[in-house]
């Protein structure tokens, strides 16, 4: 079974491989990170780890038993008991329920490890997979429409208390 792990410096090679191998797949539904992301990967990872150490963000990877990264699950902009959830899955790891199960697990961690009470997320209207994961994990649309890199999207919210 894959394991959700907090981002660490030694994840760098597997994380970079994940991003490179899935770049075209991700670009189908979310904006491409651009070439600079890959060129400056080490500096970007260092910056993320610094933010994580400061408690501003909590970054996680879904890691297969062989060390391959299957997904990223992040809690960003932590403040006043809330954070924004973002996630992306490797193409080969989709349609197996892993994203939903991992989001549910992260909601639990948000409450127990990070003291968060509310999580927000956004998804483009044409990103059916992400919207389905959010709904299955107990997120509800707030009615707030957002723009995600020029695409119309919806804002979602979920408390971190266990679902009944």
What does this structure look like?
By secondary structure, this protein is of the alpha+beta class. 35% of the residues lie in helices and 33% in strands. It has 6 helices and 7 strands. Strands 1-2-3-4-5-7-6 form a 7-stranded mixed beta sheet, with helices on both faces. The chain is globular, with a radius of gyration of 15 Å.
Helix tally equals: 6
Main sheet specs? 7 strands, mixed
* Alpha carbon gyration radius: 15 Å
Helix-strand string: EHHHHEEEHEHEE
Q: How would you classify the helix and strand content by structural class?
A: alpha+beta
Mean pLDDT: 94
- Share of residues in helices: 25-40%
Per DSSP, what share of the residues sits in E-state strands of 2 or more residues? 25-35%
**Low confidence ranges:** none
Shape: globular
The neighbouring-strand order within the major sheet is 1-2-3-4-5-7-6
Distance between the termini: 25 Å
Q: What is the number of beta strands?
A: 7
